Amino acid sequence: MWRVLLFLQRQLVWSVPACMVAGITLGYFFDLSFLKSTIVPFTFLMVYPMMVNLQFGKLLAGGSWKLQGIAQGINFLVIPFLSYGVGWLFFRDQPLIWLGLLLTGLLPTSGMTISWTGFAKGNLNAAIQMTVIGLIAGSLATPLYAKMLLGRAVEIPLGETFKQIAIVVFLPMILGFLTKRGLLLFYSKERYDKQLKQKFPVFSTLGVLGIVFVAMALKAKDVASNPLVVLSYFVPLSIIYGVNFGLSTIVGKYLFNREDGIALVYGTVMRNLSIALAIAMTAFGKEQGSEIALIIAMSYIIQVQAAAWYVKFSDYFFGKPKQLAEDGQG
Fold first, then answer.
1. Do the domain assignments include residue 91?
2. Would the pTM of this model clear 0.70, i.e. be above it?
3. 54 — phi, psi (to 5°)?
């Protein structure tokens, strides 16, 4: 079972579409409305494990405030309005899909921000700081941005949205912090890092796949009746991710060193799709939430694939890591 979960986590680019197809297929032939009751458990399973490993201590560890400032400027002053603008071009007559696109742009960084930064040999401490700041600031700002930008097109229940954010973000954050502190009373930090730390994200992946399956099952008949419309969602998503990667690469390359530049890219391009899914499925009701979640689920396909390919090209954009460059000269 553990190996299966680990495989699903490593192959999100395939496991997410597989769950989408399974949800649509089974939801089309069978009445799966009873799965609505699994949304809250899956949401908790999705968010809580990622909070256990969140390193709040790194927030005060120092570093480049210029880097953090520019990263959060891109995250909160550029990408939300880019998502809004692309949504206006493609979905002005489909406000719920437009809102789903906006939610992907309002919640920066994910746990994989740190992982991908490490794979590309970027600045891990900076990536950790971006992740913590982006998670907290994005969670607090999302209802306000959504109300300001789309309040006329979609009923944004501010009170309910803040309530659900407290339940799906801040409660798991507190419980995750307490869980880690409790485990460190029984295990040394070295043993925790080697044996326990890597296990929590796997369970988070199970929550993600569960939510994707349920969301697709609840919208199965709508999706099956017009599959080409759903596939067309890849176009606006590709535009947003393409502009985001391009802008962050240019800023990172010309304003920062290699390590900081890579952290900037992954700290601004990776979106917290898990939190976006959780908010969609809990704050807007099951029917509306499933429609909003549709485009968020499809974002996984592009985000994971693009992040993986960017690791391969990071040396081309930023040059080789310093040690490798020195070894090559030697």
1. yes
2. yes
3. -65, 125
- Torsion angle (degrees, nearest 10) of CA 179, 180, 184, 186: 30
Tell whether the torsion through CA atoms of 140, 64, 112 and 254 is positive or negative: positive
- Is the pLDDT assigned to residue 193 strictly greater than 60? yes
How far is Cα of residue 294 from the mean position of the Cα atoms in its chain?
A: 14
Other CB atoms within a 10 A radius of the CB of residue 5 amount to 16
To 10 degrees, the CA torsion angle through 275, 278, 279, 282?
-160
Report which of 223, 244, 200, 201 is spatially closest to residue 298, judged by C-alpha positions.
223
Tokens read off for 21: 């197809």
Which residue type occupies 6?
Answer: L
**Residue 40: its pLDDT value, please?**
79
Whether 208 is covered by a domain: the verdict is yes
CA distances from 215 to 98, 164, 289 (A): 17, 17, 8
Range of the domain at 302: 12-329
The tally of domains found in the chain comes to 1
- Establish if 1 belongs to a structural domain: no
Give the dihedral sign, CA 279/285/286/292: negative
pLDDT of residue 258: 94
Say how far apart CA 80 and CA 304 lie, in whole Å: 20
| 114 pLDDT higher than 90 | no
What are the Cα distances from residue 72, in Å, to 62, 138, 149, 273, 274? 16, 10, 19, 17, 19
Task: Give the end-to-end CA distance of the chain in Å, rounded to a whole number.
Answer: 47
What separation in angstroms does the CA of 284 have from each of 137, 197, 217, 248, 329?
21, 33, 17, 32, 58
CATH number of domain containing 291:
1.20.1530.20
Closest CA to 104 of 140, 73, 136, 79: 79
Is residue 5 in a domain? Answer: no
